[in-house]
Design a protein that fits this description.
single chain; Rossmann fold; alpha/beta; 215 residues; 4 helices
Length: 215
């Protein structure tokens, strides 16, 4: 089972969500993201939020349609998205995808990036991706990882999230690396490309953000 979460980010930045509507996928709506799911004919299994961005009639519709509603006061320690992601991790899915988490307010975007860091620090290895029309973003703990070429997402960037990345190697890339030491703030690994159908990246310490993008 995969869990897909739709937040309230700008609709124009969303990819084709019905592409992720399969028998293995379950949807969660966060705040006004629930209304967007309704408009696409997708029924979420659960909804999270303080729902301060929806109308009274829209909230009544959410309560009528969604079986499991988690409604909170606006004054709370966690964001609506954090509450949804925490619940999703408890379901032990194969993967969590987050949509509607980019564009709009930058504080919300950076908060959503922070949600990718916590599972790695906690040793929770459920893969989590943030996806919009142009990007797929995910984080990796130290290890060795195959990566497949994509015509849709040609460019691949590797961005240090921790203070240091040790022994970063990129194989099968236009700009390969071998056991490089990368510091936080480095732009060395921005906008690379695979030259083969498959490549590999590996590193021994740190947390690495991978961004797959198209123009």
């Amino acid at each position: 089972m995969n869990i897909n979460i739709l937040g309230g980010g700008p609709i124009q930045l969303l990819p084709l969500l019905t592409k992720y509507e399969t028998e293995q996928d379950r949807w969660i709506g966060v705040d006004k993201g629930v209304i967007t799911l309704f408009s696409l004919g997708i029924k979420p299994i659960s909804a999270f939020g303080d729902f301060d961005s929806v109308t009274v009639s829209e909230l009544a519709n959410i309560k009528e349609i969604v079986g499991e509603l988690h409604q909170y006061r606006p004054e709370k320690d966690e964001t609506d998205m954090e509450l949804a992601v925490s619940w999703a991790k408890e379901q032990r899915p194969n993967k969590i995808r987050i949509f509607g988490a980019t564009g709009g307010r930058l504080d919300h975007f950076f908060a959503n990036i922070q949600l990718l860091i916590k599972p790695i620090l906690d040793g929770n290895h459920v893969p989590i991706e943030i996806i919009d029309q142009k990007n797929i973003v995910f984080l990796k703990a130290p290890g060795s990882y195959p990566i497949k070429k994509s015509l849709e997402k040609k460019y691949i960037s590797f961005i240090p999230i921790s203070a240091e990345i040790h022994d970063l190697s990129l194989e099968g890339f236009k700009y390969p690396l071998k056991n490089r030491h990368i510091l936080l703030g480095s732009t060395l690994c921005i906008s690379n490309e695979l030259i083969n159908d498959y490549g590999n990246f590996s590193f021994s310490t740190g947390i690495l953000m991978v961004v797959r993008s198209n123009d």
